[in-house]
Amino acid sequence: MQIFGFLGSLLGYILWGAFYILKDFGLSIIVFTVIVKLVLFPFSVKQQKSMAGTARLSKKQKELQEKYANNRQKLQEETSKLYEKEGVKPMGGCLTTLLPMLVIFGIFYAVAYPLTNTLHLNSEDVNNALSYINTIPGYAASVNPTYQEISLLKVFPNIMNTEAIQGIFNAQEISTIQMFLGGFKPFGVDLLAIPNEFGLFSWYTLFPVFCFASNVGAQFITMRINKNQMAQQQGCMKIMLIGMPLFSAYIAFNVPAAVAYYWIISAVISLVQSIVLGKIFSPAQLTANSEARHAALMFENEAKIPYVYAPHELKSGEGANTKKKKKK
Q1: Does residue 287 form part of some domain?
Q2: What are the C-alpha distances in Å from 156 to residues 25, 26, 182, 305?
């Protein structure tokens, strides 16, 4: 898991930069999500082109399937030739589908380890502080073994003036932790809360519910935009389409609400992005562009054919006309 820890630390710099300016973790996550979407935008365009391109070729693919119904190997060869000729990569969207998952793991590690991965405090100092609160009667039982740094943040206002904590962190670090902790409750909602600690019938259960709904909505719109291509989904896309919303809801129920909050914002932005890209790179639009390029290429090739001036043909023609006139 070291790779995810490194990714969490890397993304933590972006989160902390946004938080330092906005002083609100909810707004910081929105800004963070927009930045991530901008970075991944070229991959999203590539994915949409791949999906629309595959949909554009669905009619030709069907003809090949009928023609080589009894020869699977030949069908695969001809299909590959078709994709190569048209410049379509049917598996081009799989990597783009997996990249957001890496970001999810990164944001999880940034939120689950806020002191070391977001504030980038010395890990040894953080461990010393955790060891200290484990010696305080009543506090040790409140420490979540999975989210120890979050537990430390929650009790920090009660222990920050103790001699032990002031000996571990300097005044600037204590002030930074205080400021950071104060920005985790936009609209009174604790983004460090973990829904499963409050049971199924708490307000925090809305996070996994909204996670599921937003992901289903984003997937449904994508299906509607690329319905021809979705009918013949490639393996990795099928798994993501069916399993992603349920997976997101399950994860959102067991991780800090900030992670679910990011997932919801990301799904909403993806929904808008899919609609826009679907209009720009629709199968019909790609077909029109392809036909325009083909026509332009034909015109260019015709223009390259050299014009040959043949005066003897002209004279021959004129002579024939003169003879006709004399006969008259």
Answers
A1: no
A2: 18, 21, 11, 81
Measured CA to CA, the distance from residue 228 to residue 56 in angstroms comes to 8
Residue 140 sits in which domain range? 122-168
Assess if residue 304 is contained within a domain.
no
DSSP string, 206-244: HHHHHHHHHHHHHHHHHHHHTHHHHTT--HHHHHHHHHH
Residues 8 and 146 in one domain: no
Same domain for 269 and 206: yes
3-state secondary structure of 280: helix
pTM recorded for the entire structure? 0.74
Q: Which two tokens stand for residue 113?
A: 């380890």
Do 96 and 238 form a contact (C-beta atoms < 8 A)? no
Residues in the chain: 328
Angstrom distances, CA of residue 155 to CA of 20, 105, 151, 195: 22, 26, 7, 19
In a domain, residue 310? The reply is no
Question: Quick one: 149 and 7 in the same domain?
Answer: no
CA atoms of 105 and 196, how far apart (whole Å): 19
Give residue-wise pLDDT tens across range 243-302: 778 888 999 999 999 999 999 999 899 888 888 887 777 666 655 555 555 566 566 666
In a domain, 293, yes or no: no
Q: Which tokens sit at 189?
A: 């909602």
Residue 268 CB partners (closer than 8 Å, separation 6+): 214, 218
Report the alpha-carbon distance of residue 155 to residue 139 in Å, rounded. Answer: 8
Q: List Cα–Cα distances, 2 to 7, 109, 121, 130, 274, in angstroms.
A: 9, 10, 17, 21, 33
